[in-house]
Amino acid sequence: MNINELIGEATAYDKKQxxxxxxxxxxxxxxxxxxxxxxxxxxxxxSDDNQVVGLADAESDAERISEEIKTKLDPIPxxxxxLKEVDGKKLVLLHVYKGQxxxxxxxxxxxxxxxxxxxxxxxxADRLQLKSLVMRGAGRSFDAIPSPYKFExxxxxxxxxxxxxxxxxxxxDSDFVSWGIxxxxxxxxxAGALLADDSPIRHSRIFCTRWNGLDMTSGLxxxxxxxxxxGSVISQLQDAVAFVRNNSHRRWWKEAExxxxxxxxxxxxxxxxxxxxxxxxxxxxxxxEIHIDMYDDxxxxxxxxxxxxxxxxxxxxxxxxxxxRRNPLLADFFHRLKLMERRGSGMKKxxxxxxxxxxxxxxxxxxxxxxxxxxxxxxWNLNYGEDVVKDNPHVIKEANDVVxxxxxxxxxxxxxxxxxxxxFAKAQRQIYKLISQMPQISAAQMSENxxxxxxxxxxxxxQLSDQNLIVREGGRKNGVWKILDDEYEGFFKxx
Length: 495
Fold this sequence. Notes:
This protein is an alpha+beta fold and about 500 residues long. Helices cover about 35% and strands about 20% of the residues. The strands form five sheets. The chain has a six-stranded mixed beta sheet, covered by helices on one side. Strands 1-2-5-4 form a four-stranded mixed beta sheet. α2 links the parallel β1 (about 15) and β2. α8 (about 235-245) packs antiparallel against α9 (about 265-280), α9 runs antiparallel to α11 and α13 crosses α15 (about 455-465).
């Protein structure tokens, strides 16, 4: 009999050849881990190579298992003991259910330890995992607990702006409570602190880097572009997607009546990856931020915190993995604002966006990996490699040509074309962001926000205006800026 037929729908299992009477910790740690996680099944009477060996006295062993759980686990988890006979050999199946009163401790041998599942192992919970279990047992999550910051000291203009754009209705004062930004006592929650314009949670930042080559040590020189994103997590999402776009290219070719484009990375997949990194990361892990590293052939997104249930994504089918929400308030917020796909479909959406291009010569599907403290996603550059579109004779633009065109459009080349392009791209990104937040903003206000001279801002504004990417409508005092760039205007409307 296949062991999977024994465990049924269990998400995890352990097997023991016999009941360890003198060393109960060897199997009770799995009971603790299952109760602290998503549940699981412990099978007694199965060898390491999955052979059914049976137990000499299964009934007596079942009684001993029940007694050990009652005396050496605190609190006592919900379990079910099942006797099963296979090929004339008796087994004991111990079904452990997901606990509601976490953490569940092993209290034998003068120890008090809580265990969690990491892959197919039961390991002692570290400080952060234990803290998370305590909050879960209390019915709380990190984003729902009160923060040390005052609500009255925060502004939420970005949140209100996006709320109006996405839902076509104003964000009322009463919504701060219903959306979990403040609790019933009027205290700012961690979710609220993360959504504030100038978020005080510094480690919520995103570090973006476009490296020159295929890795960080390729010897081709320093990073081509970099950005440290902070503030509201909504702004970070916008800026991170914009960074990827600014450091990506599009190949295009003409068909009979239209132009076909092939982006380096499907934007919807990029947005979904970054969005998932923001809402699912472990914010209790201090000193670790989200990293987006772009190379010639791929981009890698790292976020602190592994799978919420301790499983390893590389051992699972990403198309069927249900979403376990580490930060349910943030997840609900992003979902209600339509900033992410419906619950549980994030990885399916990412894979689906790439699957449309699977006939390309150098196609690679997105890759996911995790451990106890990290989650990694790799998106592959669809345009990497000289033979990517070799079968299409109509290709008239290559990535290198695009870079050259951008450089030629820049008037003030002083210290090298690449450097000017980098600075202009950064300024463009910042200006678009400021305009989206405050259309009536002045050049002087832009200068103050960007930390550069008024003359520099005016030069950048002229370049963008000359390229018909932005326009000033109305007078100097009462006028507003409008983004004409199709790529960016569409993006900000979506976000």
